[in-house]
Amino acid sequence: MSSIINKGLLLIISSPSGAGKTSICKKLIDEIDGIDLSVSVTTRKKRKDEIEGKHYFFKNEDEFRVLLKEDQFLEHAKVFGCLYGTLKNEVVSKINKGMDVIVDIDWQGTRQIAKQLPKDIVKVFILPPSIKELQNRLGKRASENIENFKKRMSEAKKEISHYKEYDFVIVNDDLQLAVDQIKLILFSERLRRYRQLTLDKTIEKLI
């Protein structure tokens, strides 16, 4: 095992709804050592099966606004009437300890984080295998409401249009293959020279 101490990285995973992003993130957490999922703050109501600090940090709107005023977020957004945000300290403290962190956000949140942590992020965009498959997946989610389905498709296409803002693009035609491809990206990014914090000392001993 290498004696070089690494700084962690922030792995951003984005995709249109229905492309399998949630399943991919779960498998990455299950299959890779030294990686964790960022826990977001939200103002939406806690569901009965959710655990504070594991699924979300649940705050009311006033508490959220205080965090926002204190510049505690790497990114934040309003989604379906509820506020969501990624805590700066939650992420930065982990990557400074050598832990990699996955953040599951859209292109707008990615832009916000890129401004604050440009050298610490790796951006991966997940595509569905085809428009037909995306329609099938979103159709199942919104089968009771054709207008809802059309809205989801429109939002998915808008999300896909931002693929050029990402470092890597992966087509999720096979879940395990997509996960394995992201693993290759992650393991390669861990070896970037500037992330190997004690590399210079190791080199000094060699020469």
Low-confidence stretches: none
The biggest beta sheet is recorded as:
5 strands, parallel
Q: The CATH topology is what? A: Rossmann fold
Number of domains: 1
Order of helices and strands: EHEEEHEEHEHEHHEHH
Radius of gyration: 19 Å
Query: How much is the average pLDDT?
Result: 91
Structural class: alpha/beta
Strand order of the largest sheet: 2-7-1-8-9
What is the CATH C level class, in words?
Alpha Beta
Please give the alpha-carbon distance between the first and last residues: 21 Å
| SS element count, helices | 8
Measured by DSSP, the beta-strand proportion falls in 15-25%
Task: Report the strand count.
Answer: 9
- Could you say what the CATH architecture is? 3-Layer(aba) Sandwich
What's the quaternary structure here? single chain
Global morphology: globular
At the fourth level of CATH, the homologous superfamily is P-loop containing nucleotide triphosphate hydrolases
Q: Considering DSSP H and I runs of 4 or more, what fraction of the residues is helical?
A: 40-55%
Relevant terms:
207 residues; alpha/beta; Rossmann fold; 5-stranded parallel sheet; 4-stranded mixed sheet; 8 helices; 21% strand
Task: Provide structural commentary.
This protein is an alpha/beta fold and 207 residues long. The chain has one domain (10-206): P-loop containing nucleotide triphosphate hydrolases (Rossmann fold), CATH 3.40.50. Helix content is 43%, strand content 21%. It has helices spanning 21-31, 61-69, 88-96, 107-116, 131-141, 146-160, 175-190, 199-206, and strands spanning 10-14, 35-37, 40-42, 56-58, 73-79, 82-87, 100-104, 121-127, 168-171. It has a 5-stranded parallel β-sheet with strand order 2-7-1-8-9, sandwiched between helices. A 4-stranded mixed β-sheet has the order 4-3-6-5.
